[in-house]
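request received
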Amino acid sequence: MINSSLKTLSQMLAKKEVSSVELTQAFLNRIDTFNPDINAYIALDQDKTLAQAKAADVRIAAGSAAPLTGIPIAQKDIFCANGWKTTCGSKMLANFVAPYDAHVISQFDAAGAVNLGKTNMDEFAMGSSNETSYFGGVKNPWDFTRVPGGSSGGSAAAVAARMCAAATGTDTGGSIRQPASLCGFTGLKPTYGVVSRYGMIAFASSLDQAGPMAKSAEDCALMMNVMAGFDERDSTSLQRDKEDYTRDLNKSLNGLRVGLPKEFFAEGLDASVAKVIEAAIAEYKKLGAEIVEISLPNTGLSIPVYYVLAPAEASSNLSRYDGVRYGHRTESYTDLMDMYCKTRAEGFGAEVKRRVLIGTYVLSAGYYDAYYLKAQQIRRLIAQDFVEAFKKCDVIMGPAAPSTAFKAGEKVDDPVAMYLQDIYTISTNLAGLPGMSVPAGFSASDDDKALPVGLQIIGNYFDEARMLNVAHQYQQVTDWHTRMPELQLPQGTK
Amino acid sequence: MALSIEDIKKIAHLARIEISENDATATLTKLTGILGLIEQMQAVNTEGIVPMSHSQDVVQRLREDVVTKTNQREAFQKAAPLLGNGSTQQAVDSGLYLVPKVIE
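response:
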């Protein structure tokens, strides 16, 4: 049951083969067993969760169930959920109980889904390994000595270890796709503006976008049907007609033009990852796709540009944490300035402080043009690269991350090495394009562990349904997405 | 441009983050590395390119000037921090937030 698709679970619920309470309890039991080791969840509330499951069972019995009614979903702790502790992985918000629901949370509530709990993440979503979380790192279910990726590392581990039916994540520079690649499941970052950011704790507002993290493309499509949609409370939410993201899943890929950017297969990509990606491309050829070589010449600049723009936006967004109205306030202080400075020094971790400082610097008098404006200009060049590329192809493919999961602690003291994890994902955030990572195989590590590799699929604006189709067809002829790690029961467990 | 310890302290002050001498030194090393990465941008000729602040070319929506939100002060103030300086009370009084005196 824990490895079943959302569609199967929904059918089982409809046929009363299982109740939502039973299904939810099965996941809660699994969380009880494995979460103490993996640390994927940082807030659990069985009473609240089971109350939702009971309500879902009533709704199913009344015959008014929606596709996700009764399905247990893990929520990244970046989404405010009324009455739930919502920390964003930070000491600053360690005791913050959200007084309202994010749009994403109310969408799942309205669909009758069950909130299993809040998942661990890099502090304020700043990180690629989940190691910046105030609540500790998360273990990669495929190898406990390795990181799950980040920033949505808790959701990633929860999906990979089947501690939820599906999960939500957010992606500012790769935070859905890189962990999806490192943990071996399907994750989608939609076009910017498709999912409302209301109640989603802000990191870099022009880049942040929420999306599904699930076992398959079909599951992601069902999640998108719930998450996407116009919301007037987010000024950047796009006014578009409601879509059915499952509509194209079964279309043939015959004649699909797949663009391979040569920059995604250049220096910096692990040979073992390249091999898996090439095998996946070969599979697409068998499915009728036509391969086109393309170029995204400014790919290398996406990291420098991102590390100006995202910290600049973050330094502004995080100025709200001043110890006045909510969150941490230092215990002893002399005056207002002292209160601000101590509160922020204590409440933020090292990586968040670094980014706030960079952001403050690039926006400060005398440097604005050289850094911020320059980065915005190159951002346009990066977006134009994609416009040119999509004249020649329907989707773009390549690796989602340059390597498989790395060891915990390996990059923690080297921010620049950590930032390079997002080399293949960041440019789509800058352009606002949708991107996804799909399990494409495994690669053996030096210590002989089989580690997952993700194939990235980048689509044109609003082309999520096509991308899901492209991923789904691949998942009809491969079984990588059904593989799950063999988890050892902790000692003393019966 | 190379950063100095004094620059780090100045930026930290602008960002309202207290920083110790030791932390400033460690931060200097890390930020210098990150700025080195960022410097790659300077090799690009961007003359005449319109800066891109946002991925979608949309304008701010306007709405009718009517009240849409209800007062939830009590619910919101439940999340207020503790006053500190020896007091374990929340930093609120009569619906207001308490901060150190700023006007003599």
